C-alpha cells in the first residue's frame, strides 16, 4: 500500500515512479572488496545495483584487514601468510576468516548509519544474509560472516534452485546483468589470485553444488545416514562406481559432521521447501557428531568389497 511505502520511506505521500526509485530509498547494497577481489566481480555488483536501483557502496577494506593482521603481529611477533605465499593451512584459513568476519561488522555499521548519512530519518536498516543451503550443509562458511544477519532470504534455498530463479529473473524481468552471475565460477575470493590460480568454491569443498543438492535432499527429506545414502546413490548414479560413490559419501558426511555446529548460529531464513538443514528451527538433528562414523563407514566398505567381488566374477565370465 502507498501508505506503507510512505511510512517506510519516512515521507508521507511519497509515490515512487519506478521500482528502482523505491529501491533507492529502502535498499542499500555494498561490495566489500579486498585485493583478493577481482575487477569482474566488483563490476557485476555495481551493474546489478544500478539495474535494481539500490543505494550502492563500493568499499575497499584492505586497510581494515591490514590493521587486524598488524595487531596480531604486534602481539605475537608472528605474521600469518596465505598458502600461496608459503603459509600453513591454519594461517591461510585465518586470513580468509578475517575478511569474512569484518564484512559482517561493516554490514551492521552501514545498516546503522547509512540512513543517517543520507538524512533519511536515521532509522537503522535490516541486514540481509546471503548463505545458501548447500554452503550451510557442507559448512562452507565462516561463523559470523555473511551467515550472520537479521534475515536471510535465501537461507533455505539450494544453489541449483537459486540458479534457476536467477535465470527466471533474467528472462522475465529484463535483468540481463544476471547472465554474468550465472556464467561466473563460484568463488569466495578470499585469497590472492593470479593468472594461474583463482579460488573456486567447488574445488575447495571437494564436491560440486549439484552433488551437494543431491546429498541435502537425501539427508533431510529421505532421512539418509551414510550407509543408506550410499545405497541410494548406487541406484541414482549408475554410471559411477561403488568405490567412488563411497568416497564421495564419506567426504560429505565428514564435513557435515565437523561443521554441523555452525548451524546453531544461522540467521533466520524464509522456508519454502523441505530440504533445509537449518538447525533448531527446521532440522532437529543433533549438532555434535563423531566425524569418523566408524560403524557406518565400515558397512560402506564391506558393501564396496562385496560389489567389487561380484563385479569381478561377472567380468571373468
List the helices and strands and how they pair.
Layout: H1 2-9, H2 19-26, E1 28-33, H3 39-52, E2 55-60, H4 62-76, H5 89-117, H6 133-138, H7 159-172, H8 178-183, H9 201-205, H10 209-220, H11 226-236, H12 242-259, H13 279-282, H14 294-316
Parallel strand pairs: 1-2
- Mean pLDDT, nearest integer? 92
Sequence of strands across the biggest β-sheet: 1-2
Distance between the first and last residues' Cα: 75 Å
Percent range for β-strand residues: under 5%
Give the helix proportion (percent range). 40-55%
Shape: globular
Sketch the major β-sheet: 2 strands, parallel
Rounded to an integer, what's the Rg over CA atoms? Answer: 23 Å
Query: What is the overall number of helices?
Result: 14
SS content category: mainly alpha
Ranges where pLDDT stays below 50 over 5 or more residues in a row are 313-317
Q: Care to count the β-strands?
A: 2
From N to C, what is the helix and strand string? HHEHEHHHHHHHHHHH
Organism: Coemansia linderi
Protein name: Glutamine-dependent NAD(+) synthetase
Keywords: Ligase
EC number: 6.3.5.1
